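Hi R.,

As promised on Friday, here is the backbone we talked about, encoded as structure tokens. Could you run it through your design pipeline when you get a chance and send me back a sequence?
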């Protein structure tokens, strides 16, 4: 039976420093994405005929951009690099399991926790960038300062949920395939493996969507406040004009 999590598969060990499969295959995914992006974009063409790989990459970017725009109801450009990177890394990690010996780094709780922490810190970064430090921090005190502990617990709990959800789904899929390999003929695990690829892609999509929702909740509220302020100023100006 294969290892449930790549953390348990250790290649090299120097004292307390361990080089496990999680680190190795995380770098494999990063190298594949970086090298693939370089190969596709080194000879970009504007007009036809467009190379198939460039067409595929443009399609992916367009789809991610459209999803960001639909979920956040905002311009997608500020969020595209972060959300796109999350989606491609998770999707590539889950889809590369078709390679013999590959262990998806998303099957490690340390990897999914790191990804969730990226979202955790991205939320205030985008929120502060949208409105400023003081207005963003005031959000935690609304509608009353007594809500501050609950706001903090909410931020932490959804980060934990992001990490555990992705880890649990990827790990359980690997465990099920390993069990079926040991008790059933070859063709059934292959079918389960293909189903696992679909589920892995869906998990990448869900993680990216949730990240967009959390970021949108931290930025959209400020746009609503700005609209209210502008509406209030207009209402104050209109009586003045009418009196004049």
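Update: got your reply. Pasting your designed sequence below so it's all in one thread:
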């Amino acid at each position: 039976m294969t290892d449930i999590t790549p953390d348990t598969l250790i290649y090299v060990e120097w004292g307390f420093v361990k080089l496990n499969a999680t680190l190795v295959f995380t770098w494999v995914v990063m190298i594949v994405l970086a090298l693939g992006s370089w190969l596709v974009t080194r000879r970009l063409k504007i007009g036809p005929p467009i190379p198939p790989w460039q067409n595929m990459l443009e399609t992916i970017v367009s789809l991610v951009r459209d999803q960001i725009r639909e979920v956040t109801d905002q311009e997608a450009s500020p969020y595209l690099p972060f959300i796109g990177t999350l989606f491609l890394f998770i999707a590539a990690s889950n889809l590369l399991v078709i390679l013999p010996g590959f262990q998806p780094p998303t099957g490690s709780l340390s990897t999914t926790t790191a990804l969730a922490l990226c979202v955790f810190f991205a939320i205030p970064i985008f929120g502060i960038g949208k409105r400023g430090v003081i207005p963003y921090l005031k959000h935690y005190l609304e509608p009353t300062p007594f809500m501050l502990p609950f706001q903090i617990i909410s931020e932490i709990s959804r980060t934990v949920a992001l990490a555990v959800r992705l880890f649990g789904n990827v790990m359980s899929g690997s465990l099920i395939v390993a069990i079926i390999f040991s008790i059933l003929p070859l063709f059934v695990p292959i079918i389960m493996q293909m189903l696992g690829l679909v589920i892995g892609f869906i998990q990448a999509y869900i993680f990216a969507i949730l990240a967009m929702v959390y970021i949108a909740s931290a930025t959209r509220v400020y746009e609503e406040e700005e609209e209210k302020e502008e509406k209030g100023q207009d209402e104050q100006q209109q009586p003045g004009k009418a009196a004049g």
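One thing I noticed while checking it: The chain is about 75% helix and 5% strand.

Thanks again,
M.
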